[in-house]
Amino acid sequence: MAKILKIYPDNPQENLINEVIKTLNNGGLIIYPSDTVYALGCNIFDIKAMEKLAQLKKQKLEKAKFSIICNDLSHLSDFTRPIDTSIFRFLKSHLPGPFTFILDANKNLPLAYKNHKTIGIRVPDHPIPQLIVEKLGHPIASTSIKDDDEIIEYSTDPELIAEKYDHLVDIVIDSGYGDNVASTIVDLTSGEPEIIRQGKGEI
């Protein structure tokens, strides 16, 4: 059964964040809030956790396109090719925020991302994922939680999310109702911003 942790953005309790970190380090899956929708996350360096995440999304890991959640832009050089000054300034002006930026990947990607030529980077404007990444010491893999409902695309109620994923994840962070609009996906690989999916963020 998933453990439900009530952690709120205005005062995230350190002991509860530490429990999340321990779970991630032990290969667990978490559901966490962001500045857009609730999302599934795990340790990017734990291949078994990444495989579980892919299974949950009914995808093969090698074909899965999981974003990498960072707490700032300092991790960019770990995973991406050198970025032009203009692109870096563009990123800096939009992050943290409700965007997923597609960038050219380098050869140092974690094993689960092997052979990926591009990588999606997120820096959510939300203290909980930022704190998790900061305390973990490296980014986490992430994918949005979609709803089976044809009208409401994304689940917003953490209690209903916890009920649905009860036996599939280890921790559900209840941070109150989430948004139902996902991030805007922007491809920066050509050097010019190209919107792949219009979501919450405006370019």
Helix content: 25-40%
Rg, rounded, reads: 16 Å
Kindly state the number of beta strands. Answer: 10
What are the segments in which pLDDT stays under 50 over at least 5 consecutive residues? Answer: none
Q: Biggest sheet, open or closed, and with what strands and sense? A: 10 strands, mixed
Q: What is the terminal-to-terminal distance? A: 40 Å
Percent strand equals 15-25%
Domain YrdC-like: 14-201
Protein name: tRNA threonylcarbamoyl adenosine modification protein, Sua5/YciO/YrdC/YwlC family
Pfam families: Sua5_yciO_yrdC
Organism: Chryseobacterium taihuense
What does this structure look like?
The chain has 203 residues and is an alpha/beta fold. 26% of the residues lie in helices and 21% in strands. The chain is built from six helices and ten strands, in the order βαββαβααββαβαβββ. The chain has helices at residues 14-25, 47-56, 76-79, 85-94, 127-136, 158-164; strands spanning 3-6, 30-32, 39-43, 67-69, 99-104, 118-122, 140-144, 171-174, 184-187, 194-197. It has a ten-stranded mixed beta sheet, sandwiched between helices. A hairpin with a 6-residue loop joins strand 2 and strand 3 (39-43). Helix 1 (14-25) crosses helix 5 (127-136). The radius of gyration is 16 Å and the shape is globular. This is tRNA threonylcarbamoyl adenosine modification protein, Sua5/YciO/YrdC/YwlC family. Residues 14-201 form the YrdC-like domain. InterPro entries: DHBP_synth_RibB-like_a/b_dom, Sua5-like_dom, SUA5_domain.
